[in-house]
Amino acid sequence: MKIFGIEFKSKKEEVQVEVIEDKVPEVKAIIPVSKRPAIVPPVRDPALSYYSNTGISRRSTFQLPEYDLAEIGRVEDVESFVRQAFDKKVALMFKEGWDFIGKNPKTLKYVQMRFDQISQASNLSTAVLFRNVGSSLIRKSNCFVVKVRKLEASGGKVRTAAGKKTPLLPVAGYFVAPAETMEYRVSGNRVSKWRQRMPDGTKKEYNISNVVHFRMDSKEGFVFGTPTIVPVLDDIRALRKIEENIELLVYQHLFPLFQYKVGTPEAPAGITETGQREIDVVRQEIQYMPSEGGIVTPERHEISTIGAEGRALRAEAYLEYFKKRVISGLGISAVDLGEGSTSNRSTADNMSRNLIDSVKNIQQVMESLINQYIINELLLESTFGDEVLDEENIVKLKFKEIDIDAQIKKETHMADQFSKDMITHDEGRRRMGYEPLVIPTPQEIDNEQDLAENFPEWHKTRWKMFQMPTLLIQALDEPFSPVAKALAKDNSVSMTSGDFSQASSEKQTKELELVKAKKPDPKPAVKKDGYLTSTFIQTRQDVIYRVSMKNKLEQDWIAALIRSELLTSVQTLLSEQMIAYRNGYGKYASVYDPIFIESVIPARTFFRDRLERYIYRLTEEIISSLKRNVTEGTPPQEMTAKTRAIFDSFEFRTRFIEDVEIRKAFNFGEVIAQRDIGIQSLYVYSENGTCEMGNALKGKQVQLENITLEDVPPFHAKCSYTLVQNI
């Protein structure tokens, strides 16, 4: 059976070995190389390493790891903090899973197929294999993956490494070996062979081509990586030693020592009438006293308990200090261990962020190692040719994002940047970790080559699946609509300009028919109360309910309620004022000009101060009216009726405030914009103004240099005066 040119043979079939050499073409200055080789010959590190700079010949001996990796396993078995730290890192690392990604669907399918085949041959799933690799990197910063090469159980091809003639059989399985059992032999400043030594003395040697050594945080000149737990081991020992001493202290002082004092300095212990010493009498009483019994003593006797008070060292601070050192050294926090009683949500998120960053670092290392030493070798065993390791053919392991909150914020930010034309669609997808969509060109659309099999992802977008069909249906139903005009300009819609010229005439005809059949305009709807008025009405109901329940007038409570509720509603009214101010300013100048932006904060301050003065004045007048009309002797029903009437009499004030202040904000925006464009003065004017205040100011010239909000009409409710440039 062949899939993508890869042969899968059973044991019963005759095996014909076909060797594919990784040839490295000779590079000449005159003749350029047209193809990049799949792999190039390896080069050695010219720098000396610690194991090659000792002056002792070690070619025939195997060396132990630089660190005692077996100790890490022993510590993990007995130390709960270490076990919890490792488990939480492994769980977080693989919480969201991983994927194979690549631009070429054929190479991507090939790698997935090879891993499926390897998991069947080794009886070990790919997920478990990667989890074992990640767990070993987290615990020991080293991982050894041993390869099993077998042609009959593999779908790869036999090949030769660069510069060598010995054929390499394809990989049939990967197995993780215990890192603490591995030893190495060096030759020529590099590792030449690996050997596994078990505790019972059993040994087995491996060729370097059959072992993949993953390592993290490796010091220069070291073969093995430095485990992250190495600097924490001494802290763990110190912590457990302190705990052991505290345990001994508890056992020592668990049962207290009782001291029985007989006599006082003024009346010391003496001899009883029977001739016995008083101390001996007490000793006998205690000796024969039942375990649940008690003893009665005179004033000359005293029983005290001798414990560890004042004599033992208080070890709480030392215990807490070393505990924090251990937890910090393991790369976790107390919150991750469930000790979050003193941390709020923000603090807990920040502390957990360190764990996430640490796990992401391990993920990046594992991705690069898997991609370089495992996936690339599987690709070299394929029949895709020398270009198999090119960027468009490469396949990579990619972990999914484990910080979901950060991912949501990042994707929202990218979408916002794209909507504001700060980045392109391809840039946004790359920054989110996705490959750019392959979109058909206008020529391909015109030639009807934008088929689903050629552009599968493009045809699964929301635009192609939902938006475009909806707009097409709308364009057919309403051929003269703006949607139809927009779709006419889109290359993906097969409609001609002649169709739309006809649609335009149909539109004019339909509009004339609508004008003829037009009905009289309906009466304007009653304007709804603003937020300030609605809040005032609700406050009135709360006050009336309170008065009817208490049968008394609580003036301080009513004043506090009115002020708090109306001041809260002021924020909504203030927002409407700022919108009106912006609209007024936009009639004469640009609202994107820095001058307008600088004027926003002072204008908002003027509006807020003016509204707050209205609220305080309105509250004082309501309380004053209640004091005059509602007394302590007023009957309950009359008290409720008068309270309702007083609030009703002030309700119109809130409507006037909303009307006047919003119009004043709009006019103030017009005035400030005209001042900013160079106009020096305006005139107070109204065609049909009838108010006394406006008539007194009609025709007055107002200088704009130092104009304030109080100088701008309307001056009161229903005032129609405004400021104009010419009369």
Structure notes:
The chain is 48% helix and 11% strand. The protein is mainly α. It has 4 domains: 50-227 and 363-399, no CATH class; 233-286 and 298-353, no CATH class; 437-516, no CATH class; 531-679. A hairpin with a 4-residue loop joins β9 and β10 (191-197). α17 packs parallel to α19. The longest helix is centred in the last third of the chain and has 41 residues, at 636-676. The protein is flat, with a radius of gyration of 44 Å. Residues 1-38, 52-58, 491-497 and 518-527 have low confidence and may be disordered.
Overall shape: flat
Number of strands: 18
Report the end-to-end length measured between terminal Cα atoms.
95 Å
Q: How many individual domains? A: 4
Helix content: 40-55%
Structural class: mainly alpha
Number of helices: 20
Average pLDDT metric = 78
